[in-house]
Amino acid sequence: MKKEWDTIEVLRHARHDWMNKLQLIKGNLSLNKVDRAKEIIEEIIMEARQDAKLSNLHLPQFASKLLTCNWENHHFQLEYEVMDSQNFHRLDDQLLTGWTEQLFDTLNSSIEQYQENHLSVTIEPQEKGIGFFF
Question: Which domain holds residue 63?
Answer without folding.
Answer: 7-133
